[in-house]
Structures are given as structure tokens and as C-alpha cells.
Design goal:
By secondary structure, the protein is an alpha+beta fold. Helix content is 39%, strand content 20%. It has six helices and six strands. The strands form two sheets. A three-stranded antiparallel β-sheet has the order 1-2-3, with no helix packed on it. A three-stranded antiparallel β-sheet has the order 4-5-6, with no helix packed on it.
Length: 137
């Protein structure tokens, strides 16, 4: 498969292949593209196996448009949006190796359904603690 045309919507990098099939990938996977101006996004070139944005130093493979996880899971989305969170400290609280958690978040490894459920439950638990906090100052 080879992408022949690319464009963006509010949340996705969109590609069309030589057969007119349209594919989407979340821009959360490509923070520099997400933050780029329209002008910066429009300066790219096609290579043998992907798309390159030289000024942004980003490469997106054609193959990546076919990945199962073109959209982040709920817990990946949470961490990709909330960059202010300390992954190492969250991992300690959740009882997960920090490197493994980063690999889960970035899609390099896929957690089991049980592990993903544990992570989401810990996120909810911490969120509930914030909601219950009394900030009378």
C-alpha cells in the first residue's frame, strides 16, 4: 500500500492510497504534527516507504496507516493528552514498571486486557481523589 495524498482534520493525519482508500491516524501519535501550523504540515515529500516532513523531522510510514492502533486506547489517549503527568510516579503507584508503562502508552507494547483494566482503574481512583479533595483555602 502506498499513500498518494495526505491531509489533516482536527484530530487526524488522513491518507489516501492509490486505490482511493482513506486511512486515518490520530495526531496524538505525532505531537509535532499536531502542534504544527498548516504551512508546516503542507511541506512534506513522499519517499519509497513513507512520508517525510523535513522541517519537523517527522517520518510516517505508509505501513503505519494499516496498524490496528491508529487510534490510541482510552488509557493511551489519557497519557498522551496529559503530558503534565509523571509517568514514573504513576507507574510506582500502579505497581507497573515505568519503562513498560511508557511502552504501553507509546504503542510499542500492548497490555493485556486485564493490565489495561488495572491502569484505567488506577486513573479513575486518582481522579476520584482529586474530585473529593477539599480545596478550601
Amino acid at each position: 500500500m502506498k499513500i498518494m495524498k495526505v491531509w489533516f482534520d482536527d484530530e487526524h493525519l488522513v491518507g489516501e492510497d492509490e486505490n482511493g482508500n482513506v486511512y486515518k491516524q490520530s495526531l496524538l501519535w505525532y505531537q509535532k504534527l499536531k502542534d504544527a501550523t498548516e504551512e508546516e504540515r503542507n511541506v512534506y515529500c513522499f519517499g519509497f516507504d513513507g512520508i517525510h516532513w523535513r522541517d519537523l523531522d517527522i517520518d510516517v510510514s505508509f505501513e503505519s496507516f494499516l496498524y490496528e492502533d491508529a487510534e490510541p486506547s482510552d488509557f493511551q489517549r489519557f497519557f498522551l493528552i496529559h503530558k503534565e503527568l509523571n509517568i514514573t510516579e504513576f507507574a510506582k503507584i500502579a505497581g507497573i514498571n515505568a519503562t513498560l508503562l511508557r511502552n504501553y502508552i507509546n504503542g510499542f507494547k500492548k497490555p493485556s486486557k486485564e493490565r489495561e483494566k488495572e491502569i484505567l482503574e488506577k486513573i479513575r481512583e486518582i481522579g476520584n481523589e482529586y474530585v473529593k479533595a477539599d480545596f478550601n483555602v
